[in-house]
Amino acid sequence: MSPKVALITGASRGVGAAVARALAADGDTSIVLNYGSNPEPAQSLIQELNSLRDNNTRSTEKPRFQALKANMADRADIRRLVSQTVQEMGRLDIVVSNVGWTRMTDFANLEEADNEADWDRCFNMNVKSHFFLFQECRKYLEKTQGAFIATASVAGVKPSGSSLPYAVTKAALIHLAKSLAAIAAPNIRVNTVSPGVLLTFLANSKSITGMNVVIDAGFSL
C-alpha cells in the first residue's frame, strides 16, 4: 500500500505542525509542509516526523516528508506549491489549508475595527487564499477522491475573537467551505474545523463533507 499524500499550509508551527504530527503518527501519509519565510522550524519538524514515521509506518512504502516555501497570499506561489507537491510526491489526497491572519484588537471597539487595511488583509488571507488553494488542488483531489480541510475558528461561529475583520472573514470561510462541499461533491470532501484531533479523522472519513466542526480547545485561531 502506497502512502497517501497531504499538503499542509502554514505547517511550521502551531496547528499546522500538530496536524503533521498526527498524520505522521498514523503511519501511512507522506506530507509536504508549507512555510512562508523561515525554513528552520519546518526542517526541525521534518526530523520529528521522521522519528514518528519510523515508529508507526503501516505502508509498504515509507512515507516521505518535505518542506516547500510559498507565499499563500500570492496566487502564482500557490499554483507553484501545488504543482511542485504533485511532481515530488506523485499524487495529492489531503489538503489542510491552515493559513490565516489577524491583528490583535479590542473586538468590541468599532473604531479599531474601522481599518481598511485590516479588512483587506483578513479577506485575502482568511478567505481568498483558501479558495485559490482549492482551485489549484481541485483536479488532483478529484482523481483521489480526496479531502480539503480549512482551519476556521469559533470566532466565525460566535461573534468574538481578536478582531471584527477576523471574525467576519472566518465566518465567510465556513460558508465558502460549505459552498465548495456542495459544488465539489461527491469527489471531494470539504470541511472546516477549529484546532483539534478531529483534523485527522476528517481527512480520512469518506462520508463527512460540508461540516464545520467546533472543537473547544480553550483557544481559537
TrEMBL record:
Supply the alphabetized keyword list. NADP, Oxidoreductase
Keyword Oxidoreductase on this protein?
Answer: yes
Organism, per UniProt? Aspergillus oryzae (strain 3.042) (Yellow koji mold)
Its name, as the record gives it, is Short-chain dehydrogenase/reductase SDR
Please list the GO biological process terms of this entry.
secondary metabolite biosynthetic process
Which Gene Ontology MF annotations are present?
oxidoreductase activity
Q: Which family does it belong to?
A: Belongs to the short-chain dehydrogenases/reductases (SDR) family.
Q: Which SUPFAM superfamilies match?
A: NAD(P)-binding Rossmann-fold domains (SSF51735)
What domain of life is recorded for the organism?
Eukaryota
- List the Pfam families: adh_short
CDD domains membership: SDR_c (cd05233)
